[in-house]
Design goal:
By secondary structure, the protein is α+β, with helices and mostly antiparallel strands. It folds into two domains: 45-104 and 144-200, SMAD MH1 domain (Smad3, Chain A, Alpha-Beta Complex), CATH 3.90.520.10; 209-485, Tumour Suppressor Smad4 (Sandwich). 25% of the residues lie in helices and 18% in strands. The strands form six sheets. It has a seven-stranded mixed sheet. Helix 2 crosses helix 3 (60-80) and helix 10 runs parallel beside helix 12.
Length: 496
């Protein structure tokens, strides 16, 4: 009996008749390898050790993402020989460890990888910043974000969240330590991801306001200054900002991008006019002998409430924000505590102009409430327009001024410490002065279309799509102070 070679032909040769059999064997081998790798995934020992220092509990999907993030970092640090330093930082938990750096930006060899890095556009395929030339980089659209398994984030935020603060939301919550030579805000070619070279920004404790004790609750309140019938002035962010004092924080939000792609130093920093001295308010001589009651600030469960309007009609239910970082966008997620999706809302009275504007809201605006400050960041491809009395007072503008925020820019629209100082000062001026501060706790914001003296729409109710924010913490604080103060000095009657 002759031996038959399974693939046909002579021993050691493959005939055309045996080719399908060989292909089948190769396929089965690769499939078996894939099955075994999924059943017994290989995790290098160094990755296992680093994952052992992870903080917080995650579900299965989140665990896999964390492992991929660590593997990505290990791969980068192997090339630069910094793995030992990372282990040392995690085991000692000391700020005296060295900076652990990775490249801030990377060069991609294809359009697809590049498009995924464009931060200015929700839909990269339609981005005006995307070059169709291979290896071309759009410098103004790269902010150094790291992509791990289809999720993008700033590298120092990713690894600080992984190894120190699982509830970290944004880079606004981090401040670099003085020892860090490659902090994110330094804009160097390398960025430090040592989680112990950053500290969490703490919310400052607001001192109580001393209010004369009064048990009488007013039946009526004085009227607020009404700017709704006046034509508000307009200003452009950041050109109209000329602060008296420039305050440069350790980790400023992403700044204004100039036309040539360079970040303007003046606008890249959050600008502040300096916080007033926040000691408990000193009362006037008339109040010095009164029984004073301290009224403290309490942080509410929902830091703001947001209502959506189309022209002069309110649409949908009020959104109550519990997360320190949330977005208002034009999409349709029905149950996300970090998103108020306007695309879900219906309105039988909606006209063509409103419909067209809604289509251009896109990613909308991101609102941050961190360290007692509120920031608005324009994520849309179109500008947003903000009317914030607190912000306007900071820069010496008219209280009703409307500020245009271009795409990719952000503006501090409220500061609790500034409000606390105003409240303490207003208590000395009487009930009416305190009540006037109510309007400072309301912020109006329109999408795509602006309003004011430079626009044909002169009131916010003339804009197709806009929102109104009520800051719950300051409003509740005002309520307690007004209740304690009693009633205004000028009585209001049916014949007054």
């Amino acid at each position: 009996m002759e031996w038959a070679w399974p693939f046909g032909g002579k021993e050691g040769c493959f005939s055309e008749r045996g080719a399908p059999v060989l292909s089948l064997l190769l396929y089965l081998c690769s499939a078996w390898g894939a099955v075994m790798s999924s059943i017994l995934p290989f995790t290098p020992p160094i990755v296992k050790r680093l994952l052992g220092w992870k903080k917080g509990e995650q579900n299965g999907q989140e665990e896999k993402w964390c492992e991929k993030a660590v593997k990505s970092l290990v791969k980068k640090l192997k090339k630069s020989g910094q793995l030992d330093e990372l282990e040392k930082a995690l085991t000692t938990q000391s700020i005296s460890t060295k900076c652990i750096t990775i490249p801030r930006k990377e060069t991609f060899s294809d359009d697809e990888s590049f498009q995924q890095t464009c931060i200015l556009c929700a839909n990269p395929s339609t981005s005006p910043h995307v070059s169709r030339t291979a290896n071309a980089l759009c410098t103004r659209s790269l902010d150094g974000r790291l992509q791990v398994s289809h999720r993008k984030g700033l590298p120092h935020v990713i690894y600080c969240r992984l190894w120190r603060w699982p509830d970290l939301h944004s880079h606004h919550e981090l401040r670099a330590m003085e020892v860090c030579e490659y902090a994110f805000n330094m804009k160097k070619d390398e960025v430090c991801v040592n989680p112990y070279h950053y500290q969490r920004v703490e919310t400052p404790v607001l001192p109580p306001v001393l209010v004369p004790r009064n048990t009488e609750i007013p039946a009526e309140f004085p009227s607020l200054d009404d700017y709704s019938h006046s034509i508000p002035e307009n200003t452009n962010f950041p050109a109209g900002i000329e602060p008296q004092i420039n305050y440069i924080p350790e980790t400023p939000p992403p700044g204004y991008l100039s036309e040539d792609g360079e970040t303007s130093d003046q606008m890249n920093h959050s600008i502040d006019t300096g916080s007033p001295n926040l000691s408990p308010n000193s009362m006037s001589p008339a109040h010095s002998n009164m029984d004073l009651q301290p009224v403290t600030y309490c942080e509410p469960a929902f830091w703001c409430s947001i209502s959506y309007y189309e022209l002069n009609q309110r649409v949908g239910e009020t959104f109550h924000a519990s997360q320190p970082s949330m977005t208002v966008d034009g999409f349709t997620d029905p149950s996300n505590s970090e998103r108020f999706c306007l695309g879900l809302l219906s309105n039988v009275n909606r006209n063509a102009a409103v419909e067209m504007t809604r289509r251009h809201i896109g990613r909308g605006v991101r609102l941050y409430y961190i360290g007692g400050e509120v920031f608005a960041e324009c994520l849309s491809d179109n500008a947003i327009f903000v009317q914030s009395p607190n912000c306007n007072q900071r820069y010496g503008w008219h209280p009703a001024t409307v500020c245009k925020i271009p795409p990719g820019c952000n503006l501090k629209i409220f500061n609790n410490q500034e409000f606390a100082a105003l409240l303490a000062q207003s208590v000395n001026q009487g009930f009416e002065a305190v009540y006037q501060l109510t309007r400072m706790c309301t912020i109006r914001m329109s999408f795509v279309k602006g309003w004011g003296a430079e626009y044909r729409r002169q009131t916010v109710t003339s804009t197709p799509c806009w929102i109104e924010l009520h800051l719950n913490g300051p409003l509740q604080w005002l309520d307690k102070v007004l209740t304690q103060m009693g009633s205004p000095s000028i009585r209001c009657s049916s014949v007054s």
